[in-house]
Amino acid sequence: MTNNQYDELHRYLLNAANVRGELVRLEDSLQKIVHSYEYPLQIQYLLSEMAAATCLLTAILKFKGEIGIQIQSKGPVSYAVINATDDFTLRGVARWDETLSELPEAFQDLLSDAVMVITITPEEGERYQGVVPLDKPTLAECLEGYFTQSEQLATKVILMTDLQHADRARSAGMLLQVLPTQASNTDVDQDTEFEHVSKLAETLSDKEMFELPVNDILYRLFHQEEVEVFSPQEVTFACSCSKQRSADALRNVDKAELLKIVEEDGAIKMNCQYCHAEYIFDSVDVEAIHAGHFTETRKDQ
Ligand SMILES: [Zn+2]
Q: How far is ligand 1, taken at its centre, from the CA of residue 93, in Å?
């Protein structure tokens, strides 16, 4: 049943319609995100959708850097975040009110009074941040709002999640967007064409999305269109944490305070919230960090 076209982002063009498309399906890359805590199903669902959405966004990056989708809410889920790099490595985490015995089902109840913050951090140049209210019933519709606002281009987003198999979470995303070169002319045909291919995309069932090979999906939807498909890009899980980064963070904490912790607890332990890696610092490390010459390669670590 499963085929090997998971953890890949596919780009394509519907040339006659002047629309570009993306299709992403996640499986292996998703497990370390969805199963890194004992997340309730609703949060697994949210993180899965956000991971697919982040891939769709990442494919728009025109430079090297990082992209993050963060949801902040006053509801039971206080925040959820997925970070990605331009070469499609993903990581993510969510925090919720663990005192609740049950979480609400609906997206809007789970995330009441919520915003989605999209942060784009180029390796060189200014960081960009866009804030979108989460005021629509689905994440896909909220993202469409973001694209329409930030890119001024008509955009269709479809997100799907399959959590039927407890240890094999899967999610998928599809994006259709009017090509920028055509967006400036207010050609009615362009709108009609986009409307048409969007409607076609909406006919895709969950079963087709998760079980058909990518080319069959595109054929099934757009066989009357002229489709140009590009080679896919691999999506993987990766965490950018390191002992050095943790050390850099400790530089901002008072040295006496750090030494007190070492004295009381034996060491400073820092845990990565994304991948659970643990970094341990002793008093020699603390001295080195504050003297500005800490290096990760100390022999006894
Ligand atoms: Zn990590």
A: 11
